[in-house]
Design a protein that fits this description.
Keywords: Ribonucleoprotein, Ribosomal protein, RNA-binding, rRNA-binding. With 101 residues, this protein is mostly helical. Helices cover 50% and strands 4% of the residues.
């Protein structure tokens, strides 16, 4: 199990990203538009820099929904490899069969 503080920090980041998503997208559109003047684009970049760091989506860490583990994460299922194996062995994931040869 991951530290609860790490998981909570990540949840706070997710909330910040959601809160500032529209503003960030609008500023990025202005900053990346070649039709705008250089001053407008530069101002948009400065305003982007003033936003909280944790409002950037790249700062979110993918974590297992069950254990909070940050490594060996399967995006499709939202689980780590360890949680996936445990739930699969218990028969809680439909269609997942433990291989044996």
């Amino acid at each position: 199990m991951a530290k609860t503080s790490s998981v909570e920090n990540n949840n706070r980041r997710k909330a910040l990203v959601k809160r500032f998503a529209a503003k960030r997208q609008a500023l990025l559109a202005i900053a990346n538009n070649e039709a705008n003047s250089m001053e407008e684009r530069f101002e948009a970049r400065l305003k982007l820099a003033e936003l909280p760091r944790n409002s950037s989506p790249t700062r979110i860490r993918n974590r297992c929904e069950v254990t909070g583990r940050p490594r060996a994460f399967y995006r499709k299922l939202g689980l780590s490899r360890i949680a996936l194996r445990e739930l699969g062995n218990k028969g809680l994931i439909p269609g997942l069969v433990k291989s044996s040869w």
